Amino acid sequence: MSDADNTASSGRDYRDTVFLPETDFPMRGGLPKKEPEILEKWGDLYGTLRAQRQAEKAPLYVLHDGPPYANGDIHIGHALNKTLKDFVVRSRFLMGYDVDYVPGWDCHGLPIEWKIEEEYRKKGRRKDEVSKEEFRTACREYAGKFIDLQRDQFLRLGITGDFENRYATMDFASEAAIVKEFHRFKNSGQLYRGSKPVMWSPVERTALADAEVEYHDHVSPTIWVKFPVVGMSDSHPDDLLAFRNQTPSVVIWTTTPWTIPANRAISYGPEIKYGLYEVTAMEEGLEFEPWAKAGDRFIIADKLAEDVLKAAKAASFTRIYDIDPSGLECAHPLAELDSGYGYSVPLLAGDHVTDDAGTGFVHTAPGHGADDYAVWLAHGHRDVPDTVDPDGAYYPHVPLFAGLKVLETEGKKTGKFGPANGAVMEKLIEAGNLLARGRVEHSYPHSWRSKAPIIFRNTPQWFIRMDEELADGNTLRDRALTAIDNTAFHPAGGKNRIRSMVEGRPDWLISRQRAWGTPLAMYVDKTTGQPLNDPEVDARIVAAVAEGGADVWFTAPDEQFLGNHNPAQYEKITDILDVWFDSGSTHAFTIDPRTAESGYTGNRPSHWPADLYLEGSDQHRGWFQSSLLEGCGSRGRAPFNAVLTHGFTLDEKGEKMSKSKGNTVDPATVIKESGADILRLWVAMVDYSEDQRIGKQILQTTVDAYRKLRNTVRYLLGALKGFDEAERITDYSQFPPLEQFILHRLWELDAQVKTAFEEYRFQDVVRPVIEFCTGELSSLYFDVRKDSLYCDRPDSLKRRAVRTVMDEVFNRLTAWLSPITPFTMDEAWSSRFPEAAAGANSARILPQAPSEWENTAEAARWAKVEKVLEVVNEALEAARRDKVIGGALDAWPTVTAPADLLAAYEGLDAAEVFRTSGAELVEGEAITAVIKTADYPKCARSWRRVPDVGSDADYPDLSARDADTVRYLDSLKG
Known about the structure:
Elements: H1 31-42, H2 45-55, E1 60-64, H3 76-94, E2 98-100, E3 104-105, H4 110-122, H5 132-156, E4 167-168, H6 172-187, E5 191-201, E6 206-207, E7 213-231, E8 249-254, E9 265-268, E10 274-282, E11 297-301, H7 305-311, E12 314-323, E13 329-331, E14 344-349, E15 361-364, H8 370-378, H9 420-431, E16 434-447, E17 455-464, H10 476-485, E18 488-490, H11 493-504, E19 508-509, E20 511-512, E21 523-525, H12 535-548, H13 551-555, H14 559-562, E22 570-572, E23 576-577, H15 579-584, H16 586-590, E24 612-616, H17 623-635, E25 642-646, E26 649-650, H18 667-673, H19 676-685, E27 692-693, H20 696-719, H21 737-758, H22 763-784, H23 786-791, H24 797-816, H25 822-832, H26 856-881, E28 894-897, H27 899-903, H28 910-914, E29 920-923, E30 928-930, H29 960-972
Helix pairs in contact: 1-25, 3-19, 4-5, 6-12, 10-11, 10-17, 18-19, 19-20, 19-22, 20-22, 20-24, 20-25, 21-22, 21-24, 21-26
């Protein structure tokens, strides 16, 4: 172990007298193999933790789970979401709470329905050939299979929750509760049936809510259409319709030619300036004959006239005079081809019209646009034409175009334009009223499920009113906006985002024309058109659904529910509820029944509202908003006190993940290759409030960070072998300055970690802890105290102080990191305390750091010490590089520094701080270090070169300190 140069050698091997770290905690994690073993030992860890906290009379914290969809394996977004929730659950347990968290699943809706339709098609059966009962049973079995699959994948990730009592929206009790919540809206007058244009997916044959729509770039045909003016009020010039002039036309521009047969009006902007323009010459040398000609007269917004006439290939034109569109009447552009279009087309003032693009006029089809519908009703019109059927084809009564499809709904061309657009354009040409056409790429709404374009279509649907005054004098919108203001948002920007959405959102469309879902289980009076409000009928419906599931609504006879009411008088509604109403109601059957107010006395208590809802930022218009509206509509407030949102996970280049690109990261693969704790640590290290990135290089960085944490814990375990309470220092004044500094850092970090956990800033937990491990611990404390730990007498006050502080560090690290890397911290705790119960580390409560640990004076001192130490370390490294010394213990530096920095070394052994055999401190203006060799014999045990080596005749090759230690150890052997 040493070359006892210049000393008498005893020939003894002192290795067995050096207290080297010793532990069975391996350097390599081996997490893929070890984590499943730990999971098996934990068993029902969540149940154990709840029982323990309830026995301790702990305060209750409720995290309500936003349900993932029961369809397919979990992806990286699921892993991020569920891991963040687990950080919340485990950190709240750590801080002494009893935590209620029930994982759940969303089961109804189109994705599963589509899968089942596909399975039937493979068997040669169409959906309409299958009974609704059989179809719904297949959907239920499909969802159940994936609930089990995803549950196991979440458990493998280390997620802690009440999986034994998980919820699913398709459970009979859940469906009954959803129906009961629906009845609350029905009976409070918030529900109504309206015929209005809604977003409709012809591919899926159902209406869609805002949250079910996403926008993609889409190429559409564009047309400029002439509406001939056939009437005017007295305020217009007499010569406007004079026989000597061409009949003027109002020009509109649209990207939906298929809506022209549904046109009933033209909208104009009251503040826009319009003019009558006459073409004086057309472009020449064109490869086609334009549809305009010299002498044609058009009414166009002044700001857009040049662009419109350029599109029509006019070479020159003149402005005749101002035009006020008010009081004009036009003919439908197809009127000459079929008398079905022989109605008058009025011009209506509308605030939605702008002169930013187009012609300054808006073709108005009230059955196919929200603005069109609103302006039509605002001018006293009530009849809204039905033009397109559920498949996106023209109804048989539509002149010229009956049966033609707007979009293809089957086969390889699904989602592509059908023949309707082309047919309409050809008829406009035939009628002489197509001015120009083209193509434009623009952002267009698509179904987020089928990815196919959608249309606006007039159809009878059920809505929840946003602006009807309720019993408390407020509207649902008022209640929702007040609830938003009373909710804490993490990050804070989420409040403005959801507030703006609620401020401008339309009435809530809650009906769908599909098979797999919870029905709008109600009857409507055929005479009045109003829903039946009979508590006994409602109760029979809810009881039947609770017993047999929602299928009973479709199979049981009406007499079973209606009692004394005559079934012939009532219409049975067979639409299903928007799945967002399902998931927005989950609080009502997951939390509410287990509150003290509901009379619950079991061992799984909850409280309403929940303390936190946590989901992706897209849920501001999804689950957060549907839960907000459902809670405010049924109970007057939001079902949550706080909302936390996270961003989306991208690949390493910041691109959206896609199987077609091959850039996805499968959480199961990461767990198999590296372990769940690596994936969890990645979640903790990213700023989840923004979009995050993941890939091989990023995960390698995470693995490197994990190794630093693991090696720190491993060193502590080795250094603490055999530590017991008899060795512990309890008198703070007996701790040396360095120990007091480390305790101060523990006190400081403890407060930071607790605050970060409380505020859900998990990045601010793990990053400072990693920096502490690599900085103050590994680079300073462990290195400085290595000599004392390895070589001091076991009963020395200094070594006892070192081990006492290391014990405190171990206790804090394994607690702080338990919510983040629970498998590794459990492994570490069990390695040190093998007799501890399974999951004991997860069951710990983080104690308050003693106030006496706060020591800003030592913190200030060590900031100065490290300033000098940095210069000394650089000089030592240079000396090693130049082979002046072999190692730091060969050195005896002369260090110069200003007086205030040298004062920081008072009471310290500078050589110990520098890890050298000796040191000389000299006052000077600058910090310098001159490395000299230690010209003394080398201790055969500690390798220090100090003057007292050989001073003890019994141990001639040891320093006095080492000789004393060995003599003590020898005496213990007898």
